[in-house]
Amino acid sequence: MMPYWPRKALSALLTLWLSSIVVFALLRLTPGDPAAAIAGPDATAEQVAAIRDQLLLDDPLPSQYLHWLGGLLTGDPGISYQYDRPITDLLAESVGSTVQLALAGILMLPVVGLLTGLALASRRFGKAADAFATAALSLPVYVSAVILVFLFAVQLRVLPAGGELSFLAAPDLSVQFLLLPGIALALPAGAVLGRLLATELRRTRQEEFVLTAVAKGVPPGRISRLHVLPGSLGPFVVEFGIGIGELLGGAVIAEELFARNGLGKLMLDSVQNRDYPMAQTLLMLAIAVAVLAQLGTEVVLTRLDPRIKLGVTA
Amino acid sequence: MVDLRLSRRGLFGLTLGTAAAMAVGCRSATEVAGGGTGGSGITLAYSAAPDPTKLMRRTIDSPVFSNLVFDRLVDLDKKTMEPVPWLAREWEYDQARTTLVLKLRDDALFHSGKKLTAEDVVFSLKKAQDPKAGAQVAPMLNRIEEIRASAPGEVTLKLKAVTSNLFDALMFSPVVEAASYDQGKVIGTGPYTWGAFSAGNKLDLARFDGYWDGAPSIEAITIRAIKSPQAQLSALQSGQVQMVGGIPARDVKTAAAGGRYTVSVTTPSYQQTYLGVDVKTKPFDDPKVRQALQYAVDRKRIADQVYGGYAEVSSLPWPATTPGVTPDQVTRYAHDPDKAKALLKEAGATGAEITVWAAQTPIFSSVLDIVQYDLTQAGFKVTPKLLDATEFQTLVVQSKLPGLNIANIGLVSVSPLTGISTANPARPGDNTSRLDDEKYVKLQERAFAAGTPEQLAEANHDLSEYLLEQSFHITLAQAHEVVMWDPSIQGHDTSFLGYLDLADARRGK
Q: Which residue does chain B place closest to A269, by CA atoms?
């Protein structure tokens, strides 16, 4: 029997290869001709044919597949139909934006969750926080984004309505561009975290060790800070991990609403315009990240339970 | 309940700290994004990103940047529609009108510093003839047999036959620097130079101090691609951009209602929204049924509800001011459901089941709703079908949409001959309606061969009459492009083609 890690690596490679076939075939099965998208609505059949010829779209499909796969494996997935530029250049221009937005959302998420949870569990802010959490939960990103932009960009004019700047080039400005999309992204998942935390806080408050501390006369603030809150954070952390996934899904919408030039926008444009090499490469990138994440999880699990690596079941 | 006294203090401190950090030593992103309050740079938001790979074509993004970077040989006067000098300072036809000699300006420089030469013009026109460049005017340019630099600063065009709309094609084609074009560089002789560019996202333009007509007042222009109309309007309202363009006209109407912004409408340029009829599909093989469609559609409602009133109501694709077009032709098919019903009955097509196709976009979906209602009222049984935009476009080009389809085209606003020669849906001999009629081809040839204004007017009239009678390409609206400006920007204009002209624009109160 093949050792555990080579077997896992082989399985991952096989998944990626099969995915590349599925991705390639799915895009070709989608109705619509990339050449027609480029040529425009008033183009002649002759002009469309000239573009098809230029893009080698009439080559046999296996040949097109192998050409793309070969390029992908050598780090050159080709030229974007839509932009007529190397895909690697386009990825390099967009990846930073998406990473920054995702990080902003991920950083905001626990902040929103903690503040909401603590407010919900408090006497003074409980009702207001409840209304806020309900609104944040029920409003989709595209609505909360509009409200935030109206308040902070249009009325108060303290933050930009959209756009971006590289964090490395101008960190002070970049942060301002990230605040609104980050908050809009973090709101729904943050409200879920907040509600969960509030429930846990209330439950922990009834635990015997807390009641004992109260009976001993420990100040309430100290009890909350040192006993109740730490004892309530377990489910919060688990839900935080799940929330990150939801947040990344919302990032695509946030890029559109806040006019950011990230990978989500690139993906949407490339699928809409049947930019096959670009869409294929982006999808493969997403699949590769998922496969790597899965492998990473297995690494953690094998560390926690060596029997997994040995293939032993309990 | 949890006591939060300490947490509240912490929270307050954190908030104060963050506010202080942002206030001290931080620049305002809002101000930077808007070009600064005191600077002379401006930012324009447009629904499509500038695309340097299709310079010879008119694409959705052309209006926002093409005339800022490039000059053309001629423009057309917006009122008289006569050619006016641009890079060509004068020209002369021979007596047979088959040879045109163009004399170029001698003071025009490319952004590279190189002087404009006749060879650059020859290269540009030949490039626009190449089917790979996809220029809509290629069918007109292909009537040129020979393009040559006949002397320094002089270009001679020898035509295969008289081409009455040759200047439409010359107005359309940008002049590029021959030496750099094939290297992918974007170098023209226009008032702004192509600068930092991020594909699909942003373009920075810088003032060209060597511009032959005097350097423009605005130093720098940033063009940002913002697809979402809501995001565009927010950017304008927050002062981040000074112009928004390419958003649905009905959104402009709502946003501009308070009078806070200047609304600019491109004239005479517009996009013609049309109902394409596949004449090989029953019952549309009968001209009476096609004429019933003309009477059935409520153009005024489409103009008001879909285009916010920024559209002309006409039975013709081209402007009412076109020489030779008569008022009765413009109003020939006023909305009249009773006439539509009567024609359908006469053709024995009452209750005919038909399909109307459109691309799934907010605008075309709205037009489809109105058309579906109107045709149902007239007595058709209508099945509406919305397709993904690229799929729809593919099927239109391949003439594979049986029944009716709703789409739009651009260059019919220039002239009847240019419209039918450049737009696939209305092209004589080979069109998406599959109408193959020698009479139509001959009418086009007659228009091409018109040697005098009178002959051209007569040809225009007859072409209009033919389109009205055959009714295979039905005008639904002549929709102008509408842009909104911050009132602090003055002196902005658009060319005959509707391209942005900022040579005389300035920023100030």
A: B200
Model pLDDT for residues B90-145, shown as the tens digit of each residue: 999 999 999 999 999 999 999 999 999 999 999 999 999 998 888 999 999 999 99
CB contact under 8 A, A159 and B230: no
Q: Which residues of B282-320 are buried (b: 16+ CB within 10 A; e: fewer)?
A: ebbebbbbbbbbbbbbbbeebbbebbbebbbbbbbbbbb
The full set of domain ranges for chain B reads 2-189+488-507, 269-481
CA-to-CA dists, residue B154 to B51, B101, B406, angstroms: 30, 7, 44
What values do phi and psi take at B144, rounded to 5? -90, 125
Nearest CA in chain B to A163: B33
Asked whether the beta carbons of residue A224 and residue B422 sit closer than 8 angstroms, the reply is no
The answer, yes or no, to whether residue A154 has pLDDT greater than 50, is yes
- Domain B269-481 bears CATH identifier 3.10.105.10: yes
**Per-residue pLDDT at B1 exceeds 50:** no
Q: Is B426 helix (H, G, I), strand (E, B) or coil?
A: helix
Average pLDDT over residues A59-88: 92
Of residues A146 and B153, more confidence is placed in B153
Cα–Cα distance, B448 to B456 (Å, whole number): 8
Q: What is the mean pLDDT of residues B410-435?
A: 92
Q: How many residues does chain A have?
A: 314
Residues in A touching B389 (Cβ below 8 Å)? 272
- Contacts of residues B426-432 at CB distance under 8 Å and 24 or more positions apart, as own/partner, are B426/B317, B426/B467, B426/B473, B427/A44, B427/B139, B430/A44, B430/A45, B431/B472, B431/B473, B432/B276, B432/B278, B432/B396, B432/B397, B432/B399, B432/B401, B432/B405
Report the chain B residue with the minimal C-alpha distance to residue A125: B4
- Contact assessment for residue B52 and residue B186, using Cβ atoms and an 8 Å cutoff: yes
pLDDT digits (tens, 9 = 90+) for B289-310: 999 999 999 999 999 999 999 9
CATH superfamily placement of domain B2-189+488-507: Dipeptide-binding Protein; Domain 1 (3.90.76.10)
User: What's the confidence (pLDDT) of residue B4?
Assistant: 46
- Residue B30, chain A, CB below 8 Å: the answer is yes
Complex ipTM, two decimals? 0.77
Compute the average pLDDT of residues B312-332. 96
The helix/strand/coil state of A245 is: helix
Cα distance from B11 to chain A (closest Cα, Å)? 9
Those of residues 306-345 in B touching chain A at CB distance below 8 A are none
Window from A73-87, B28-42, B62-76, B350-364 with minimum mean pLDDT:
B28-42
Residues in B closer than 8 angstroms to A46, CB to CB, are 131
> What residues pair up with B147 in beta bridges, in sequence order?
B157
Long-range pairs for A177-181: beta carbons < 8 A, 24 or more residues apart: A177/B29, A177/B33, A178/A100, A178/A101, A178/A104, A179/A104, A179/A152, A180/A145, A180/A148, A180/A149, A180/A152, A180/A153, A180/A258, A181/A101, A181/A104, A181/A105, A181/A145, A181/A254, A181/A255, A181/A257, A181/A258, A181/A260
Whether the pLDDT of residue A163 is over 60: the answer is yes
